């Protein structure tokens, strides 16, 4: 297929682009490089530097769009919500209008578990009513709602994939954010010599070891779900799938895994809970298993090992 990937110079977008190329697809990456890196675009992909607002000229003949481009920092979204409405919502609307005009039949959207807010059920299914609690989550859920309308009205085959916590790397394609908010790469910065110790925000949760529990998914498993979503797309239908391992790991368990993989004593200090941090967030991926034929192949050990190998390779430092 001839595919367009928005945000393909970013972490997840570059990994998925590499998988699409390996599967034999013709891929054009569109990225404005506001947070991505041009040298992260996999060889073999055509690169176009542009905003998603101005993508229309690059969709002619496309069989599908995979949409990763978005602002994604929760704290920033609270401080500057206008950035998230303008980029994630207005930009996605412009993209969808271009998709409609070009007659692109398939659309896969990088959605998020943030759409659910702080549900009091676990595991979280797609039947849980979305209730985002910050502008980032609001902006992503707004695009989900757009896709439902576009699918019904215009026959678009749309799929939203709601990620939980993604980690790991695929060879030279890994995580290198200017502002790193994810637990695993932050922990690995200690053995990498980039920070002295970690903070554990809350050790009094109602969990076996008192720390918050989250669901972690390898980025390679995540990418496979995108390829399956493309292959199983249905005209006129918007499908929503949670993507997670279905297994929760506490902050202390992640720390212990990082210590084991790196053979490094990673000091950690308990701090008060952060406002709005739920006790447990674990995905049910039963629908993705049933309808996409997808299931994760890698666990927390592989996630940390691949992330650590990427960090030690020096690729991130050389290309930052």
Could you characterize the architecture of this molecule?
With 320 residues, the chain is α/β, with parallel strands linked by helices. It has a domain at 2-167 and 216-244: NAD(P)-binding Rossmann-like Domain (Rossmann fold), CATH 3.40.50.720. Helix 3 packs parallel to helix 4 (135-154) and helix 7 packs across helix 9 (300-313). The strands form three sheets. Strands 3-2-1-4-5-6-10 form a seven-stranded parallel beta sheet, sandwiched between helices. Strands 7, 9, 11 and 13 form a four-stranded mixed beta sheet that branches. It has a two-stranded parallel sheet with strand order 8-12. The radius of gyration is 19 Å and the shape is globular. Strand 1, helix 1 and strand 2 (26-31) form a beta-alpha-beta unit. The model has no long low-confidence stretch (mean pLDDT 94). Helices cover 37% and strands 19% of the residues. It is built from ten helices and 13 strands. The relative contact order is 0.15.
């Amino acid at each position: 297929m001839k595919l367009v990937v928005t945000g393909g110079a970013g972490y997840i977008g570059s990994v998925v682009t590499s998988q699409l190329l390996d599967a034999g697809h013709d891929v054009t990456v569109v990225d404005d490089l506001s947070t991505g890196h041009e040298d992260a675009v996999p060889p073999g992909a055509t690169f176009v530097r542009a905003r998603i607002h101005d993508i229309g000229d690059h969709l002619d003949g496309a069989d599908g769009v995979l949409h990763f481009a978005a602002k994604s920092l929760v704290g920033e979204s609270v401080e500057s919500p206008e950035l998230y409405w303008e980029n994630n919502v207005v930009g996605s609307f412009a993209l969808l209008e271009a998709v409609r005009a070009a007659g692109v039949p398939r659309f896969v959207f990088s959605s998020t578990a943030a759409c659910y807010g702080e549900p009091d059920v676990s595991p979280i299914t797609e039947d849980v009513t979305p209730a985002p609690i910050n502008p980032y989550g609001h902006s992503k859920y707004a695009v989900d709602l757009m896709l439902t309308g576009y699918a019904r009205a215009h026959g678009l085959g749309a799929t939203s994939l709601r990620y939980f916590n993604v980690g790991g790397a695929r060879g030279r394609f890994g995580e290198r954010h200017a502002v790193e908010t994810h637990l695993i790469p932050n922990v690995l910065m200690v053995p990498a010599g980039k920070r002295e110790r970690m903070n554990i925000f809350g050790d009094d949760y109602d969990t076996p070891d008192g720390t918050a529990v989250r669901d972690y998914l390898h980025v390679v498993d995540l990418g496979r779900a995108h390829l399956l979503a493309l292959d199983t797309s249905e005209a006129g239908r918007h499908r929503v799938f949670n993507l997670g391992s279905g297994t929760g790991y506490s902050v202390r368990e992640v720390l212990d895994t990082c210590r084991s993989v790196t053979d490094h004593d990673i000091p950690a200090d308990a701090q008060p809970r952060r406002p709005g941090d739920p006790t447990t967030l674990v995905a049910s991926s039963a629908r993705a298993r049933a309808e996409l034929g997808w299931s994760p192949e890698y666990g927390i050990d592989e996630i940390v090992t691949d992330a650590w190998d990427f960090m030690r390779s020096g690729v991130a430092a050389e290309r930052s």
